Amino acid sequence: MAPSLKRLRVIDSHTGGEPTRVVIEGGPDWGNVTMAEGRALLQSEDDWLRTAVVLEPRGSDAVVGALLCQSSDPACDAGVIYFNNKGYINMCVHGTIGLAVTLAWLGRLDDRGEARIETPVGVVTATRHDDGRVTVANVPSYRSLKDLRLEVPGYGEVGADVAWGGNWFLLVHDHDLEVRFDNIPELTAFALAARQALERDGIRGSDGLEIDHIEIFADAPPGLEADSQNFVLCPGGAYDRSPCGTGTSAKLACLHAAGKLKEGEVWRQAGIVGSVFEGSVALDEEGRLIPSITGSAYVNGESTLILDPADPFRHGIAL
Fold first, then answer.
1. What is 142-295's CATH number?
2. Is-catalytic flag, 244?
3. Whole-number mean pLDDT of the chain?
4. What is the per-residue pLDDT across 283-305, written as a single tens digit (0 to 9) for each?
5. Out of 69, 76, 92, 234, which one is annotated catalytic?
6. 106 exposed, middle or buried (CB, 10 Å; 0-12, 13-18, 19+)?
7. Is 3.40.50.150 the CATH classification of the domain at 6-132+299-307?
8. Active-site residue identified among 69, 76, 234, 244
């Protein structure tokens, strides 16, 4: 029997300029599995979905994909697995903000506008407010290395912290770079060199995982109502258009560890395109630091992706 067409129904949104594409129909059915198990299955058996959704000719390096799933946890309203042009992401806050507005678009949020969402690294809560903004209570976050001195080829020594905010980040605060939109090529080159320097020196997260996100901070420019502005390079080599929710979570963890951010205080983090997230922290009953990130997302597309078996690039262009 000849292969048949595959169809994937998707809803597109952007959060602070960063795109999210949520697959709401047409994905694989694994039965009752955790999102960590589902991610492993998606990677080993159904990676065609990731490449078809986010790679060219349908996607781009900037697109983050999200597979909407039924959660294995009866206390959760949904499960989600995030992915990008390189592979699979542990957690994605901008994507969760986009997922919340997608669920609202589908009429799947409760009367409080709240959803408990299972991710591969834990359960998070997304709450959509009356003004349309969304707050995500993220996974526990923490700083693992303080004031690391890293020799970056071509740039000299820089100062940075290492922190977990749902993904591992090198947060560079002592540098000579200009964090501006028109300096993205130079910021990208530095971030790639910094990632190579981490590999050279064998520096990893405290759980042994790769530090695959590079975040560079500077003071916010005049006219931008924020406490700082950042540039974030994602694992696949694309920069985050938003202020990066897991990166902002990592930043909040560093600020709290340094005694510069108290519980309930608001930190306004601008991204490289000028969009802003608001963040705060609280301690849970186990004493873990829980960042809450608030931002805006907008649904900007609803479509069906067609995977024609005669199309040589139906699963994306992966070189």
1. 3.10.310.10
2. yes
3. 96
4. 999 999 999 999 999 999 999 99
5. 92
6. middle
7. no
8. 244
